[in-house]
Amino acid sequence: MNSKRQPNTTATATAADFLMASRQCEIRNLEYFLQMGRLVQSVGNLVHGLQRERGATNLYLGSGCQRFARERSVILKENDQLAAIFRKALTDIQEDLTTHPVSSSLLGHIASALHSLDQLAGFRQKVAEQEAGVADATDWFCDTIHQLITVVFEAAETVAEPSIAGLLVAMVHVMNGKEYCGQERAAGSAGFSSGHFENALSRRMMHLVEAQERCFEVFVAFASEDSLALWQALRSHPRELEIERMRQKAVSVGPYKSLDREMADRWFNLMTDRMDDLKKIEDSVENAFHHRCVERYTEARHSLAHHETLLASLEQRNASTMPVLVVCDNGVDASTADAWAGDGQQSGRSIFDLVQEQTRRLRQMSEELQSAKEALEDRRTQEKAVLLLMEHRDISNDEAHRLLRKLAMDQGKRLPDVARALVSMAGVLG
Amino acid sequence: MNSKRQPNTTATATAADFLMASRQCEIRNLEYFLQMGRLVQSVGNLVHGLQRERGATNLYLGSGCQRFARERSVILKENDQLAAIFRKALTDIQEDLTTHPVSSSLLGHIASALHSLDQLAGFRQKVAEQEAGVADATDWFCDTIHQLITVVFEAAETVAEPSIAGLLVAMVHVMNGKEYCGQERAAGSAGFSSGHFENALSRRMMHLVEAQERCFEVFVAFASEDSLALWQALRSHPRELEIERMRQKAVSVGPYKSLDREMADRWFNLMTDRMDDLKKIEDSVENAFHHRCVERYTEARHSLAHHETLLASLEQRNASTMPVLVVCDNGVDASTADAWAGDGQQSGRSIFDLVQEQTRRLRQMSEELQSAKEALEDRRTQEKAVLLLMEHRDISNDEAHRLLRKLAMDQGKRLPDVARALVSMAGVLG
Fold first, then answer.
1. CB-CB neighbors (< 8 A) of B21 in chain A
2. Inter-chain CB proximity A332 and B143 less than 8 Å
3. Could you report how far apart the first and last alpha carbons of chain B are, in Å?
4. Could you tell me if the ipTM is greater than 0.85?
5. Distance CA B178, CA B47 (A)
6. Which of A9, A10, A97, A302 is most enclosed, with most CB atoms within 10 A?
7. B340: nearest CB among A26, A119, A324
8. CA B254 from chain center: how many Å?
């Protein structure tokens, strides 16, 4: 904090000190977000790598270790590097994260994610020894990727700057949607390669498609211009139509009529291309996030410097005459304030304005922040509701999601509202 | 952070580092709350002093500077000390507040409060020169006290520990209720001493009574046992009945039939005793808050120490064999986790448990925190709604509050829900 203003030498705290402290706090947060951006980027890349490894591993195991061995070994090496970069990014902000009370919850989820990654070597060993089946592999990757994405969700929770928080919300939802897309690729591959879809598998496909849509809806609401353009390009790509047709087969064919197994490779390639395009969208959001941070950071530094000079001059002038103006930011008639305007008027008015301007700015920011926080809260509530349903009804994650959607449709309500009602009800029922 | 665990000497971040960091973060927060408690206490005392000065100043001005001169001069001296203690408390945590990104909004409101206090001397000058009327004085004190109470609200927003946050919510609502009580004392004194209540003044009395009730409802929902007992004692005190009767006169008599002016002193004394009892309740909440912080702090330190020894021993044991267990805290079938349990089983299971326990604890805390956050959010939303109504309809703060209550009654909804609907509507209407 080169720009950190020395607290005044007098023993007591002054309004000017805390006005500056308030702005310095904003700058500290922006510095922290810049580092957080690098961490988020490394998570995104690692998740993409693990999704590729999941796909390759499933093809490898599915083919009795005949196919994809070489492609897979390349991916493994790449992922070791991506994991190292992720750990490096963590090490870089470890100091910041652990010496400033940021969010014990964020730190706890980082610990979970790191612990999952620690298992990667052992898991690959099982694969090499063919002690792991396709289903096991899928579950293991899904869980580890979930841990990593949760870190980004928790990071987004700690952001206090509206436009920046919005971009992180967009990023984490495109990440999450892309992961559902990856799970759909796995489910589809299992079905097509076996030549038929059990009902359970068809239902899972439907669930994953719907889950993706919900994520992308939120993404669109918070996306940057560039990423939105890329998203529209992806949507209008001819590939989407072909995927749609294959999805129809997957959910309509049923367990008896069998499918051409050749479709498996086609499906895998289509979904892989789709995920690569989604990664490009993710990168463009990350890019927008970074530029927004730098932009806001520069603004904040400038306005801090401006305020420092202004206050310094005011404090000199007021060494003798204290400013005599009331700060009222609570809707109280401002004439009250003016009523006490005395000799200090000029300087009083200035400090008064600075303090009031800051209060107004912060209030406006907290209002703008609302929608981003709500998007994150909605997702949190839905996860709670799903866990509740899984425990109370002893059903699977998929089934709980489906049940939640059914409740929403039957009641003609928004999914988050139903989830909220459910969670609060459970609280009442104990 | 004497207990701060040195990050491992290897270049990369480990799960154990961040597990410890997560717990250390909790401890940092508790240390911060302990200091915050002292600040809140100094605010409570200063607010009480300013409320006494407001009462004395009004009696002094109301009597043409004949009465209460001596009592008032004593209060002024006491308040200078209380203000000094408040500034001292701020200076003590200034370092913490300004070097850790706590909340730029909290810091901004501290700046506002300090700036209001800077006007105290100038304002007293006006009173001495009789350039300030009773109404001006009341407005000035109301605004400054509002600034101070807002600091406590903002401080409560930064608390992440459920039971501690709940006590701060109780404290700030009893503070706010007590201030409405003080404003009712002023309004009543004006009416009784003038011998009659204009309709506007009667309406204001009604508004202030209802506003108090709403604050005390929230207080009761979050109060500690002791403070709740004190509250019930206050409620059943014979004084309440006499106040009720005088309130009835104030709202029913109307501008024509005149009242016995002797009632003014009686009213002032009754309400003053009531405010002193409310202060005692406030102190007992503050007391409970302090003890809860110390309690939680000690717990946290113990469990951190326990985890450090445990992890240290585990890391030695695992120097060679990496633990090979998946962390799954997302409702994924735990058998997946066990599936990869290998030689590292024992140690893996242990670290796995520690990490999972922390995730579970934090999730539970964030759920418990919900209700406290909602109480604060409700208040924030209502303030927004009131400001909106004041601006759009060009009405006073009181009228806006009344209108909001009327909307709630007409729609048979909770006040916070109506306020939320109003704010969101305004957002849509732009």
1. 94, 97-98, 107, 111
2. yes
3. 48
4. no
5. 10
6. A97
7. A119
8. 36
